[in-house]
Amino acid sequence: MVSLSSSPNTASTTASSTSQTQQNGAFVLMDSLKRHGVKHIFGYPGGAILPIYDEVYRAEARGDVQHILVRHEQGAAHAADGYARATGKVGVCFATSGPGATNLVTGIATAHMDSIPLVVITGQVARAAIGTDAFQETDIFGITLPVVKHSYVVRSAENMAQTVAEAFHIASTGRPGPVLIDIPKDVGKEECDYVPVEPSSVKLPGFRPTVKGNPRQINQALQLIEESQQPLLYVGGGAISAGAHAEVHELAERFGIPVTTTLMGLGVFDEHHPLSVGMLGMHGTAYANFAVSECDLLIAVGARFDDRVTGKLDEFACRAQVIHIDIDPAEVGKNRAPQVPIVGDVCQVLKQMLRRTRALNLPAEPNQTQAWLERINRWRQDYPLVVPKPEDSLSPQEVIVELGHQAPQAYYTTDVGQHQMWAAQFLKNRPRRWISSAGLGTMGYGLPAAMGVKVAVSTEEVICISGDASFQMNMQELATLAQYGINVKTIIINNGWQGMVRQWQQTFFEERYSASNMQTGMPDFVTLAKAFGVKGMAISNRAQLPEAVAEMLAHDGPVLVDAQVTKHENCYPMVAPGKNNSQMLGLPELRTLEKAAELLYCSNCGTKNPASNKFCPECGTKI
Q1: Last residue of a domain, which of 382, 406, 430?
Q2: Is the pLDDT of residue 595 over 50?
């Protein structure tokens, strides 16, 4: 969290005008949001925030802003989050005090874990009532301290403009994140001399993120890249936030470096490109996981070495030297000590590296990674992602592949679970068009996030891929889609289970399926959609799939499709807890779990070996 006081830094900002007018705090808030380019607010009113909503009424009448009324405050936070991910701008949401504010906490934590810029406005009881356990009073400032980048309580209307300007600056500068502004009810009504504060004028002496990389470290990194025979680019969400797509592409092509991404990094590199090896980690591709296990140089770009990526940490990329580039110095060396740490904006650091490579005419040997790429391609051929086609039902992978075929340019949001991992494996995404809760793994995220995305990019196709369990957590937002005509297409991968929970119970808990079956009590999703005024459809076999997807996409309005898929399909490959990334369950020729063996590859000749072998039977190299 940024180390700042809860009062704005009035000395460090120059007002845009010396003229003053008497306005109340609510007007100052709404005018300040307008000056920061806010066009859409997602929220839900209540007693403590009513003075602000009274000003929202006037701002909407002037055409300054559109307020989207969600049906649950968690939906407001997720919608603002989706808005921010799709655009790179700061998302904004409102809620009242007490339960309204606490209902935002999951959405704030989701944004915090994935470094998404939000400004969250909450109402609070009047200043005189704070600390008295007044009706609907909660200390939302204290509650959210672990999951925000910074927080404010506005103690005076005259501080409002400065607070808003600082909040937007902090949320969007350096490593992005959510900022909370808690506003007591009487501050919204309090009159003050209003002097606007423009966004460009904010300067906070205690908050100066490092942008440019250290030239000496950049030279060291280039030397390691030049010497490497088996390098791998490991790219995370920080590259998306920094807009470093072109730079990642150029670095990869210049040195012939294969590229793997985290769940947050999907879309940063063209997955149709021959250098792409897809996502790595627990449900990553086999060839990405083999590559990270065998590489001699790992170039981490805007990634944080989280547990779902690394598996057994002390065996992650254990043959490799590491270059770690990140805007947040706290992430560099947190889980894995790099040989070359570079703190700076990912895009700026890569630009510096590329300028230096051009100046030095690097690489000296253009084909130095050719043998490495050939090994990876052998793994790609041996262990492709598999799309099952059961005779009498529909597989979840088929549904996702068909969506990708008919809507390749769409923005995709997901909920969390098996469907999320299948979508990550089989969709080929573009920058900022893959929107999913990665760090917190929030079920119920997909539908409200899609709502926010569609509001942000109204002319683009937006599709939410959900699961039957996840969807029921925020299905009330169908009402918001219907009210505003938000043209989101939602498809439920319906297997009647909490699918990932069932898979873990099957694999690690001897098939004791405790509280994971969703069949009893499941609503008729088609009837449910119609009750909200949304088009509902259902499919249950392969023959229906292409036409149903086409009908869904062609409909002018929101659609909910219940895709009833085979019930016991598992998501593979899978790295079990406590295993390293080269030890995967469910590879194509080992679909039966009981027969699964842990495989390793010889680092010298690439021969596939059982893990029990100490030496390669082909060339004798120690495994």
Answers
A1: 382
A2: no
- Measured CA to CA, the distance from residue 152 to residue 163 in angstroms comes to 7
**Cα gap 273→376, rounded to integer Å:** 14
* Coarse DSSP helix, strand, coil percentages of the chain, rounded to the nearest 5 percent: 40, 20, 45
Range of weakest confidence among 156-160, 196-200, 242-246? 196-200
Please calculate the CA angle 234-263-338 and round it to the nearest 5 degrees. 30
Over residues 114-133, the mean pLDDT reads 98
Residue 481 makes CB contacts below 8 A (sequence gap 6+) with 451, 488, 532, 534, 558
CA angle 454, 458, 460 (to 5 degrees): 85
User: Smallest Cα–Cα separation from 581: which of 329, 265, 232, 104?
Assistant: 232
**DSSP result, 194-244:** E----GGG---TT-----SPPHHHHHHHHHHHHH-SSEEEEE-HHHHHHT-
Strands 608-610 and 599-601: antiparallel
Q: Catalytic site residues?
A: 73, 135-136, 185, 500
State whether 103 and 141 are in the same domain. Answer: yes
Cα 475 off chain centre by? 20
pLDDT at residue 404 is higher than 80: yes
Cα angle 519-520-524, degrees, rounded to a multiple of 5: 75
SS3 assignment, position 322: strand
Q: Are 312 and 579 in contact (CB under 8 A)?
A: yes
Q: Helix, strand, or coil here: 192?
A: strand
How many CB atoms sit inside 10 A of residue 142's CB?
9
pLDDT tens digit sequence for 531-563:
999 999 999 999 999 999 999 999 999 999 999
CA-to-CA distance for 430 and 421, rounded, in angstroms?
17
Least confident of 69-73, 177-181, 616-620: 616-620
- The alpha carbon dihedral of 42, 46, 49, 53 has a sign of positive
Whole domain around residue 315: which residue ranges? Answer: 215-382
Higher local confidence (pLDDT), 177 or 613:
177
The Cα–Cα gap between 211 and 213 comes to 7
Q: What is the Rg, in whole angstroms, of the alpha carbon atoms belonging to the chain?
A: 25
Q: Are 539 and 548 in contact (CB under 8 A)?
A: yes
What pLDDT score does 608 carry? 59
**479 in a domain, yes or no?**
yes
Q: What does the pLDDT read at residue 5?
A: 39
Contact 18, 193 (CB under 8 A): no
Which of residues 530, 564, 598 is at a domain's end?
Answer: 564
Report the number of distinct structural domains present in the chain.
3
Q: Which two tokens stand for residue 499?
A: 């699918």
Q: How far apart are CA 303 and CA 244, in angstroms?
A: 13
Q: Is the pLDDT of residue 352 over 50?
A: yes
Residue 602 lies in a domain: no
Cα 422 from Cα 278, distance rounded (Å): 12
Per the CB < 8 A criterion, the answer to whether 303 and 236 are in contact is yes
* In contact, 205 and 151? CB cutoff 8 Å: no
The first and second tokens of residue 144, run together, are 């959210």
Strand-pairing partners, residue 343, are: 326
- In the chain, the percentage of residues whose pLDDT exceeds 90 is 89
263-312 per-position pLDDT tens digit: 999 999 999 999 999 999 999 999 999 999 999 999 999 999 999 999 99
Selected residue with higher pLDDT from 321 and 391: 321
